[in-house]
Design brief:
Layout (H helix, E strand, L loop, with lengths): L1 E2 L3 H16 L6 E3 L6 H10 L7 E2 L7 H19 L4 E4 L3 H13 L3 E4 L11 H11 L3 E4 L2 H9 L7 E3 L3 H16 L7 E5 L3 H4 L2 H12 L4 E5 L2 H9 L3 H7 L1 E3 L4 H10 L3 E3 L2 H10 L3 E3 L7 H5 L3 E3 L4 H13 L1 H8 L10 H14 L14 E8 L14 E7 L2 E3 L12 E8 L2
Parallel strand pairs: 1-2, 1-4, 2-3, 4-5, 5-6, 6-7, 8-9, 8-11, 9-10, 11-12, 12-13
Antiparallel strand pairs: 14-17, 15-16, 15-17
Helix pairs in contact: 1-7, 1-17, 3-4, 4-5, 7-12, 7-13, 9-11, 9-15
Length: 425
């Protein structure tokens, strides 16, 4: 069962749905209905050539508790009815939390795509959702080793983690080609803006500060507006200021957005997916947030975290536009999210696990003794791969940092291992 309920989930799970289709794997497609408008959901189903979901829970908008609880209850019924071997969801929305919880309580394996992302800011609803979803997941598909590091550092066992890249690369590479053939690029010099995160748009002072910072920018700024943001602009009487500063557009389709992003001089955003697409397409990205769960993009040099206050945003934009060397470095930053074959990889790992009988959750049949973790010097294991050790290795201590013990990692003499052992009484 694949559950995809919002714009980014449809985009990022499309490569997985396609891989399921082409491998002839029977599957059912569910939406909780968190996004329900054509411009945020159905248009993407059509544009990405997906079949319509067989089940729509039709949760729609409401408080976090309302959305999560309604979806949880309905998903429980649906999972019992459909009896899937595994349930797949992607990301960090309320719908993903409901899906993960429903599975955990029914002992149905849950596979989390894009596991291990952390902003380390628990005031973000998405951070709470991803931490909780990861901790009840059976299989965790981390996009990068850094995301896997985050998981092992929270105590999640590496045997359930697979580093597969991010399916956004698959989606971007597949669709930018189609977009280039089908649509005409906009042309001319412009910046692109997307803004929809609760912490930015639900507070009048912050939203106004962002708009005032952008008013200092001389270039045209295209702004396809998320419905949440449009609602707030109206509610806070900021629509006029926004219209005077930016070129407001309704949310655009995926092909049009990719082409707009590729042609933009710079993208300004608080979106997760857009930070990733920007580095894939070579568009310098300025993130209008105080934290990012995609630090790989910043480290690679393609993304700058500008914060949310007026002065720092205006200064960052100015610097990126005026410093040709910095601009060029940002443009050339290397994509850290893999080769665009993550969808296939995810499906083949799941099929292999199913074949081995590893996609079953059963209560233990024997008495559980207690477990403990200890540190071991790797000195005598030098040159061996983690997969050859026959020990439950939880983390490797490399260069003084705790790291994900990738199965193919060869130990060096100055490393240490954290191993887990069963202790008998
Ligand atoms: C949700 C996710 C966010 C993700 C975003 C993707 C959570 C907590 N938030 O935020 O992580 O980045 O989706 O876009 O899960 N609305 C419509 N039409 C729709 C859906 C929503 O007009 O089809 C409006 C409603 O006024 C609604 C508001 O948008 O109240 C917010 O929708 P909601 O699903 O609660 O959160 P998003 O802001 O979309
Ligand atoms: N997107 C789109 N049209 C738009 C704005 C965004 O197709 O007008 C796409 C964008 O290409 C990206 C995804 O929507 O793949 C990101 O979704 P969003 O920013 O809503 O959510 P987030 O990634 O922050 O969870």
């Amino acid at each position: 069962m694949v559950v995809a309920s919002t714009r980014p989930e449809v985009i990022k799970l499309a490569p997985v749905l396609r891989a399921l289709e082409s491998s002839g794997t029977e599957h059912t497609f569910v939406t909780t209905g968190q996004h329900y408008d054509d411009e945020l959901f159905w248009r993407f189903i059509r544009e990405l050539g997906l079949r319509e979901p067989e089940h729509n829970i039709d949760v729609r908008s409401g408080s976090h508790a309302y959305q999560t609880a309604r979806a949880l209850e309905a998903l429980e019924r649906l999972i019992l009815q459909e009896q899937p071997q595994v349930v797949i969801a992607e990301g960090d929305t309320n719908s993903v939390l409901s899906t993960a919880l429903a599975c955990a309580k029914l002992l149905v394996p849950f596979a989390h795509v894009e596991a291990g992302l952390r902003s380390f800011d628990r005031t973000m609803p998405e951070e709470v959702n991803r931490v909780l979803a990861d901790h009840v997941s059976t299989v965790l598909f981390a996009p990068t080793e850094r995301a896997a590091d985050n998981l092992v550092n929270e105590g999640i066992l590496p045997e359930s983690i697979f580093v597969v890249g991010n399916t956004i690369v698959d989606a971007t590479l597949q669709h930018i080609e189609i977009a280039r053939k089908k649509l005409k690029p906009r042309g001319g010099e412009y910046l692109l803006l997307t803004l929809h995160r609760a912490e930015n748009v639900d507070r009048r002072d912050r939203l106004e500060g962002i708009l005032r910072a952008l008013a200092e920018v001389e270039q045209e700024i295209l702004f396809p507006v998320h419905p949440r943001t449009l609602q707030r602009l109206k509610e806070f009487n900021l629509l006029e200021l926004a219209e005077a500063t930016l070129t407001l557009l309704p949310p655009v389709g995926y092909l049009e957005f990719l082409l707009m992003l590729e042609g933009a001089k710079v993208v300004l955003t608080d979106s997760g997916g857009v930070q990733e697409e920007a580095i894939v397409l070579g568009t310098p990205c300025i993130t209008l947030r105080t934290s990012t769960e995609r630090p790989e993009t910043v480290e690679a040099g393609g993304n700058i975290l500008a914060g949310v206050d007026r002065r720092s945003i205006a200064e960052t934009v100015r610097r990126v536009l005026q410093d040709a060397e910095l601009y060029e470095r940002m443009r050339r930053a290397e994509n850290p999210f893999g080769d665009g074959r993550s969808g296939e990889r995810i499906v083949s790992i799941l099929l292999e696990l199913a074949e081995k009988g590893a996609l079953k959750i059963e209560p233990p049949s024997r008495v559980i003794r207690t477990r403990q973790r200890r540190l071991l010097r790797a000195e005598k294991l030098q040159g061996k791969r983690i997969s050859e050790l026959g020990m439950r290795v939880c983390r490797v201590v490399s260069d003084g940092c705790f790291r994900y013990p990738a199965p193919e990692h060869r130990l060096s003499r100055d490393e240490m291992l954290e191993v887990e052992e069963e202790v008998s009484w």
